[in-house]
Amino acid sequence: MAGATPRDLTRPPGAAARAQIPYVLALICLVGGIVWAWRGSHDVGNGAGLVGGGLLAAAVARLLLPPHAVGLLASRRRFADVLALGALGAGLLMLALVLPPT
User: Fold this and answer.
1) Where are the domains of the chain?
2) What secondary structure letter does DSSP report for 72?
């Protein structure tokens, strides 16, 4: 393999694709929450709750999974990623709880 590093050769086939599963699940929650919130003013809180929950789940995945298993969730150091995802997720969940039902 041209350009393959020794680390790539020790991974089982499909490991790189499986490492993207936490990122894809967080992205599905994000897109689903935006679509849900876009449906109307009465669904904004539910959409924000879904996005916030997805971000908190991504923070937990980044915290608990090893670095080679989180894929694109690992963009900075673990502490910075967990702090950013957790703060945004908690903020959106609080917004979802504070918004009045319509």
Assistant:
1) 14-98
2) G
